[in-house]
Design goal:
single chain, 492 residues, alpha+beta, Nucleotidyltransferase, domain 5, 2 domains, six-stranded mixed sheet, 16 helices, 38% helix, 20% strand, globular
Length: 492
């Protein structure tokens, strides 16, 4: 019997794939960098053929050359929620409009929030409409590209486009659908037909499946392109951050994942749906589970920016300098809104702010203050999660930013909460392999492939200074919002 599991994740700036066995042993891994297209301010796109499909095909071919057994199942995840309009044959009609970093539909967001009312949206969909939502982008497409809209008969995200190419089945997983606000009801796990008809009249909606359910089997044509044997089962997959959660065992109610990357992403697993106007409420990846989720627009992007303007010094050197600056960076407070902000303020016109600068502050202070800014942002989100009735018990930290120890320590110190660090975080593609295993019964629904290597504990001696500066952090945005918006308008 074939026992290899193939997982592929299509990310913002690269795609990754793994082959693993049903016990989680990694057999092979592959990666392809790709370009993010930013054709205009506020727009973010991917060419689905050149990025999504070509990456998938070349990763499959590289991995399958290293296979020592047959492939039992395949699963894909990807950036989301996205909007790829396609014709009746499933051919893309324009580049995919990406998730919350694409802010083109601001007018439609305001309009639909007004039309349906924020309370009603929170109640039915789990979230008010933001740049993360697909509905406003569909309306934008209808209004601004009528020639594309005329031909649109399907809409895809990265995982559902690959599933379509492999099987010919037009499906979407429940979790991704729950980010297609305001088209999906998180309580009834179904499309809201009347709202969908108002926003996207005549658009056939995909069949809904859970991420670890089998969509169909690899067709002969798809097998010739990818090398995956004809008849191999294909699981629905989901949005990448949720696959990454699965890869590190964040699946029981009360579990929280903190993803340290270019942006900061947070997912809490719940039994019942909860909502808050400053967060996203979604369905989970296991049937009948729910999530509260949050995403900051920048985190690693801030340190990347500072690295770039510091003459591209190595991160090790910058981290060393930051570690020698005292907690609180000698009373420096940064607002991390250099790319606007998603949760918890949902303000694409917010801007970054460095407050308290003196001539005695150096580069190490600034670098540390950037790390502290993201930690204050995380604490702000945690407070909103508690307000909503959640907040979680166990915190698992993943992503590139967990290496080196300083950043995770700062987040624990600022939030007062311990964080579990998994022994290895391979990423969403590994979670996809686990979902593939579940889809064909090679792993149980509660199987966890991860092991925790250490736990970061908060240092009590830093609590007082961080409590004080966090208070200032919370006051700075409302105090400067009008000026930020004025500057943002000038920058356009």
């Amino acid at each position: 019997m074939s026992e290899l599991l193939l997982g592929v994740d299509i990310g913002t700036s690269s795609s990754k794939g793994v082959l693993s066995r049903p016990d989680g042993e990694l057999v092979a891994a592959a990666e392809r960098p790709h370009e993010l297209s930013l054709p205009r301010p506020g727009w973010a796109e991917h060419d689905a053929e050149e990025v999504w499909w070509e990456d998938f095909v070349s990763i499959c071919r590289e991995l399958l050359e290293q296979a020592d057994d047959g492939v039992a199942a395949v699963c894909t995840s990807g950036i989301g929620a996205c909007l790829l309009p396609a014709d009746d044959a499933g051919n893309p009609l324009r580049p995919a409009i990406l998730y919350g970093i694409d802010t083109r539909a601001e007018r439609e967001i305001e309009e639909l929030n007004e039309r349906y009312g924020e309370e009603k949206l929170l109640e039915r969909c789990g979230s008010v409409l933001t740049t993360q939502a697909v509905g406003p982008k569909l309306l934008w497409l209808r209004r601004n590209e009528p020639e594309v809209w005329e031909k649109t008969r399907k809409f895809f995200m990265a995982n559902s486009f690959i599933a379509w190419r492999l099987t010919g089945e037009y499906v979407l997983d429940h979790h991704s659908a729950s980010q297609s606000d305001p088209l999906y009801d998180v309580h009834e796990y179904r499309w809201i037909e009347d709202w969908a008809e108002e926003i996207a009249p005549g658009l056939p909606l995909p069949r809904l499946l859970w991420p670890a359910e089998v969509v169909g089997e690899v067709t002969r044509e798809a097998s010739e392109a990818t090398g995956i044997p004809t008849g191999t089962p294909v699981a629905a997959g989901t949005i990448d951050a949720w696959s990454e959660g699965a890869s590190v065992g964040v699946q029981d109610p009360g579990d929280l994942m903190l993803m340290y990357g270019t942006t900061m992403f947070i997912i809490e697993v719940l039994r019942e749906p909860l909502s808050h106007p400053g967060l996203w409420g979604t369905t989970g990846i296991l049937p009948d589970t729910h999530n509260l989720a949050a995403g900051m627009a920048t985190s690693g992007a801030l340190t990347g920016w500072l690295k770039k303007i510091s003459g591209d010094l190595p991160y090790e050197k910058l981290t060393e300098e930051a570690a020698s600056a005292p907690p609180g960076s000698d009373a420096l407070v940064v607002l991390p809104y250099f790319a606007g902000e998603r949760t918890p303020i949902f303000d694409p016109r917010a801007r970054g702010l460095i407050s308290g600068l003196t001539l005695s502050h150096g580069r190490g202070h600034l670098y540390r203050a950037m790390l502290e800014a993201t930690a204050y942002g995380v604490r702000h989100i945690f407070e909103y999660m508690r307000d909503a009735g959640g907040g979680g018990e166990r915190l698992v930290a993943v992503g590139g930013g967990t290496k080196g120890g300083l950043w995770t320590q700062i987040v624990s110190d600022v939030t007062g909460r311990p964080q579990d660090l998994p022994e290895q975080t391979i990423g969403a593609a590994y979670g996809d392999a686990l979902l593939a295993a579940r889809s064909v019964g090679l792993a149980e629904p509660d199987t966890d492939w991860s092991t925790i290597s250490e736990t970061v504990e908060p240092k009590q001696e830093n609590r007082e200074i961080y409590d004080e500066l966090y208070g200032i952090y919370r006051e700075l945005y409302p105090a400067t919002r009008e000026q930020m918006h004025y500057l943002a308008d000038l920058q356009r």
